[in-house]
Design goal:
Blueprint (H helix, E strand, L loop, with lengths): L3 E2 L5 E2 L7 H16 L12 H15 L3 H4 L9 H4 L7 H22 L1 H22 L11 H14 L4 E6 L5 E6 H18 L8 H19 L19
Antiparallel strand pairs: 1-2, 3-4
Helix pairs in contact: 1-5, 5-6, 5-7, 5-8, 6-7, 6-9, 7-9
Pfam families: Rhomboid (PF01694)
Membrane topology: Multi-pass membrane protein
GO molecular function: serine-type endopeptidase activity
Length: 244
Amino acid sequence: MIETSSGPGRPWMAGPGRPWMTYGLIVSCCLIFVLGPASGLNPGYGSGGRLVEAQSTYFERWGVVPSALWSGAPDQPLAPLTALFVHGNWLHLLGNMLFLYVFGAMTEERMGRLQFAVFYLATGYLALLGYAAAHADSAQSLVGASGAISGVLGAFLWLFPRARVTSLFPFLLFLPLRFPAWAVLIFWVALQWLAAREADDRPGVAYLAHLVGFTLGFLFAWARFGRTARVGGAARASEGESQP
């Protein structure tokens, strides 16, 4: 459960409904990953060299290749959208989905399901588009929801500026630790950097896409909701992953 306290004796709860849009995005990304070649679980893609080739083809087909994006091909305008649901490896997927779960639920409840869905897709699309524009000659395929989730984090910081996140760490005997949201977000940036190093020549989302997404999310929340929608207090989230 995620809860925010807006002041003494006045806790703000996430509302009677559940964040079904956030859950739907998480399930969609996980299913697409498991069924695709990057998970290594689908025997239809083979193994060894055949699997590596299938992964490369898959990422180029559904990801964003900047040099191809500006080629004028009719299917390319959809590439930044499909790339949001494709991930390069297990670390890439789990890190993104964990942060989407922790921060997306409260953001969705504040925005509303439909507005949150449009916000998520538009921010992710523009984040990848921004990176592709800055690296127009690159042939590196870009995949992942990091740009969209960065937008969620930016909006979260505006809407819940004094939130604190409590997480359970398995490697510390599930000791619950509380952190300011901004500290968790710094950790998230470090996690993405480590994931990019681990991925070697496999696709990833560039740091510039994170910056574009985060900035767009923060500015959208500021312009759409203003100061009246901001909530202080503490956010609590219990997770069974190795990261907060």
